[in-house]
UniProtKB/TrEMBL annotation:
Residues 418-432 have a biased composition (Acidic residues). The lineage of its organism: Eukaryota, Fungi, Dikarya, Basidiomycota, Agaricomycotina. It comes from the Eukaryota. Residues 406-448 are annotated as: Disordered. It comes from Phanerochaete sordida. This is Uncharacterized protein. Residues 433-448 have a biased composition (Basic and acidic residues).
Amino acid sequence: MSHNLAPTLPQELCDMVIDQLSSLRKRRGALTRCCLVSKAWLHRARPYAFRRAKVITRKADRATDESPGPSLRGFAAFLASASGATVRASIMVFTIYGEYNAPPGRGVSLLSLASTLALLPCLDTLALKGARIVGLIDWRHVMPSFKTLTFEDFAKVEGPDTFLRLISLSLRLESVDIPRSAKVFGRCDFGGDCAWPTWSPPKCTSLRNLTIHNVDILDIFARETIFKIQQDTLTSISLEVPVTAWSMRDDMQSPRELISHAALSLEHLSLWLHSSSDDDTGTPYPGLGLAACSSLVTLELELSFTSVCLQAFVCGLLDELFGRAPEHACKLRRIILWAYQAEDLAGIDTALDAHISGETPVRVGLARGSMRAQAGMSPQDRNAFIQAMPRLGARGLLYVYADEDKSPGASLGACAREDEEDVDDESLEETDGDRQENTDNEERKLDD
């Protein structure tokens, strides 16, 4: 076998093979073997082998504003060395793991993190998994760095001021994902000591996708960080919105400010709405600023513990959504409803049927589970969801939403036909089995 595959396989095909291997769960071993095939494959496979890097902060790590922990310091020293120089341009995903119960003061210095990121010119994603970020930086450390920032597994930030600077660390930032488990310690005196100083970094002009499923961090983001984002650049927003009598009396200020800030560019809006099952107060809908959204194409609603208060909120939201100017309302194409049980869809069928006219090209998708973890929908679940939406079902406006490819999915009629075909196939298999059993019985009788 020739060790030089270049004359045999085109370079494009070799790159496709290596790219497919890099997507495997146990990719490191496969890519290591590719490096042993030939020198040409070594140069092609090595960048894929080092696309993902991670640093695990040990229990002994202690960091201050100026002094990083030994784990991150060792990784930065490797990147600055001659050996690290050959791989640092290949790293696209950088993950920092931390302790779940790390005490205050122990974590990753924001200053040392910025210094390390400066050594990763092609970095695409910075992921914080349980890590605690401490310390402050000034605008001189802002750089063209990562495009995606994710908080995972109870990631923590030591103070709102540190959080604001972490968000503004990269000039190329396009996506921020903050789950409910994230934590920002301390309180922010809005407009006080936590306000941005005069030497703060320039506005972020590239942020497109924003997910905040944490009410406390949403307040910080909407009141202190929003003016550092260029207006009308966000195209996708996903928010957690608790719907209770108390939150509606508070006027929903934070989500409304964020939505209004992106009114002209917002195309996809996802709202995780949850309430208390015993909340039976029909508080008036305060408004979320949807009336000014001129480009909205998709609206996703996740419903949990539907109550009288939540039903009133959703009805008011739909009134605001379909009450926009006709040239804006006609751009809406899909409304996706997430729920674990059909009971959570109570009252929505009537409200949507009243708003969706024959000229409106809107379809309603049904999905079981949550936006972060879609659950399977059995035929029994599908029938229950259909029965909860009889008016839209009769008009042919319902479909099963497929989250895997963000496509409209299969229509309910097609799914019903597939179920019938499955039943027919099972009947045929049973018939074949019965026929074989009868044949065996006849053969035994002849032998006797």
